[in-house]
Please model this.
Amino acid sequence: MYHLSIAAVTIGFLLAAVGSILILIKAVQQSIVCGLVAFFLPGGALIFTCFHWEEAKIGFLPLVIGVIMFTWGANGVPYLKTALAERYHLHPERLHLPSFPGRSSSEPR
Model:
């Protein structure tokens, strides 16, 4: 299960990054000011996407799919410590991985 979580986090991050870069490229092609706003202003890329949907929709779909995959995969990562301990027959405290508050390492998935 943890391999799937790590793969989803990685692929989701890459898809979101590609989508963001595509939106930023379209913003710069529109004008330098739009590109600077999309890059530096929080939510600027979303504002650009709303106002220039026809140009920005090419990057919006990978961005949304990437965020969904990243979020889904990140949900399984807290169980990585337990899964590694079971796989290599170790005690979870010997792995020296960070603990996650509110979840015990023995909690079943």
User: Anything to note?
Assistant: Helices lie at 2-30, 32-40, 44-51, 53-76, 80-87. Residues 2-30 form the longest helix (29 residues). Residues 2-76 form one domain. The chain has a mean pLDDT of 81.
